Amino acid sequence: MGPYILRRLLLMIPTLFGIMVINFALTQFVPGGPIDQVLAQLEGEGDAFATISGGGGETGNIEIEGAYQGARGVPPRFLEELEIQFNFARIVCAEGYTGIPDLDAEECVSERIPALERFFLMLWDYVRLDFGDSFFHSESVMELVVDKLPVSITLGLWSTLIAYIVSIPLGIRKAVSDGSRFDTWTSGVIIVAYAIPGFLFAIMLLVLFAGGSYWQIFPLRGLTSPSDVWNTLTWWQKILDYLWHIALPVTASTISAFATLTLLTKNSFLDEIKKQYVTTAKAKGLTQNRVLYGHVFRNAMLIVIAGFPAVFVSVFFGASVIIETIFSLDGLGRLGFEAAVTRNYPVIFGTLFVFGLIGLVVGLLSDLMYVWIDPRIDFETRET
């Protein structure tokens, strides 16, 4: 198993490289850029989208007679300084110049850095785990990611864990009682829950239980109480306070995962129950629980385990933006969305790198769970 894990870890390198190449290339064609954002704010327009009519690149270089769109009246020197600040240009001085590189020096000028060179410079920084600094925050990207990561991990792990804890026993019960009234009405409830959009369910929870029009039972925002209250709590009170705060957002992000997992578990168990070895086990006098959990469970759970990465990634990546926004949680999903809107490229690439790495690690853990569930599986002897 060791060589297989090593191969998977090594394969993460080209996979992450591909993710960064695709996303970096896409930014070359997305209209607007951080410079356009700054210019739009200076002109009181709020954002750059009002001044964009098409075209553009990573630097937001929608040019009219050599100037950024909306930049008329802005001194060219100011634009040069912005490009240098955002690492789209550098100061180049004449040969033999011994002073500090500065645009004020007659021997120095600004030079645009080609996109390909910027990309490889970024990769070299990533190899050294240097994700750069945010354009619009006074923090490094790594500090921002580390600060926001606990919120997203909380939503992803708790939601996935609860979904599996509820869905697997429910799916087994539905398979055993297939066609019964219990199977019918639970299927109806699951389908209705799946049909409700996550953001709508989150808003409904806020209205009903967070001081909307009905009951003030749960807090509106945050993972814990304010620091002045949190610091006065005992360790067990802190645990209860934490669970009290995450109850609504975790419920909202979990609701859509129940249907897929429950029906997947039910169908997987139904397929196994109909096989010959189950009939043989029953003929030998084994109890139903012994047959289900001693023989069927291991085989039926393989397909359920295979769906773990998809469930975790969908909750961690997909639902996090909406849930974090509605419940005022400051996590990676919200950070990535705001970075995309403001064209904060270091944060965009940093969060994409973290999301991609987490997805790959979860996929590897899923394979290890295969082996744990069924030791007959041997990835090392599998042909590649």
Can you offer a commentary on this structure?
The protein has 384 residues and is mainly alpha-helical. It has two domains: 34-127, no CATH class; 141-381, MetI-like (MetI-like fold, Orthogonal Bundle), CATH 1.10.3720.10. Helices cover 65% and strands 4% of the residues. The chain has 14 helices and four strands. It has helices at 2-27, 34-42, 76-85, 115-127, 141-176, 181-195, 198-209, 227-230, 235-273, 276-283, 288-306, 308-326, 332-342, 345-373; strands at residues 63-64, 67-68, 89-93, 108-112. Helix 5 packs across helix 9 (235-273), helix 5 packs parallel to helix 14 and helix 7 crosses helix 12 (308-326).
What is the top-level CATH class of the largest domain?
A: Mainly Alpha
Strand adjacency order, main sheet: 1-2
Overall tally of domains: 2
CATH architecture of the largest domain, please?
Answer: Orthogonal Bundle
- Please report the number of helical segments: 14
Strand content bin: under 5%
Protein name: ABC transporter permease subunit
Subcellular location: Cell membrane
Transmembrane segments: 9-30, 149-172, 184-210, 242-265, 300-327, 347-373
Main location: membrane
